[in-house]
Design brief:
Layout lengths: L7 E4 L5 H10 L4 E4 L2 H4 L4 E4 L4 H11 L1 H10 L3 E5 L1 H6 E5 L9 E6 L10 E5 L9 E5 L4 E5 L4 E6 L2 E7 L2 E4 L10 H14 L8
């Protein structure tokens, strides 16, 4: 069994990765900015932040990050995507269609809530993670339109799935790093530690 502490990588090519870093600092977790494919191999958990998914995809293609992230997922290591990160992880992207990493069996619609002016803060329910409603910040957020049979819905807001999980992969259409609530990041870190210790969830 591994004895060293797990390391978290923040994919830092574009977007709000610094705010995830601030949250991890609050939780006392070591992390590192990741901009090169070789760095991914050194991580035990990886966060794909919000931002502009098309810009990230372009960088992924130029720097070879896409194949490295897919390999990371295939090794059963924990991945967490928020907003644009969730778009990148999805199997199908709509409005308009675009390539993705295809690691999570969902269909997701980009900018489904409208423009930046239509961003909002809502109360959502994550009954398996918290007894209390969670504050959820949606910024030009996507909407999950289809959830595969092997995907668990962990959170909903206004009846829509907003936090989903498939094996070692977690995705949120909102920005938990923009709140003071540590629930979602703590859940992801537990996944990282469990996987790091060899307690691998079934990935179907």
């Amino acid at each position: 069994m591994k004895t060293q502490h797990p390391h978290i990588g923040l994919v830092a090519v574009q977007g709000d990765f610094a705010l995830h870093g601030r949250m991890l600092d609050r939780l006392g977790v070591s992390w590192r900015l990741v901009r090169q494919a070789a760095q991914i191999e050194e991580m035990d958990g990886l966060i794909l932040p919000g931002g502009e998914s098309t810009t990230m995809l372009k960088f992924f293609s130029e720097e070879g990050l896409g194949p490295a992230i897919r390999k990371f997922a295939e090794q059963g290591k924990a991945l967490f995507g928020t907003c644009a990160g969730a778009i990148l992880l999805a199997r199908e992207v709509l409005n308009p269609p675009q390539p993705s990493l295809g690691l999570l069996d969902i269909s997701i619609e980009r900018n489904a809530y409208g423009r930046q002016i239509d961003s909002s803060v809502q109360q959502g329910e994550c009954p398996e993670l918290s007894r209390q409603p969670l504050e959820m910040v949606f910024i030009r957020a996507p909407i999950i339109r289809r959830v595969g049979d092997n995907v668990r819905v962990l959170g909903r807001a206004q009846g829509l799935p907003v936090l989903v999980e498939q094996g070692n992969i977690l995705a949120a259409t909102f920005h938990p790093e923009l709140t003071e609530d540590e629930t979602i990041h703590r859940y992801f870190l537990k996944k990282v530690k469990d996987l790091h210790a060899g307690n691998t969830p079934e990935r179907r």
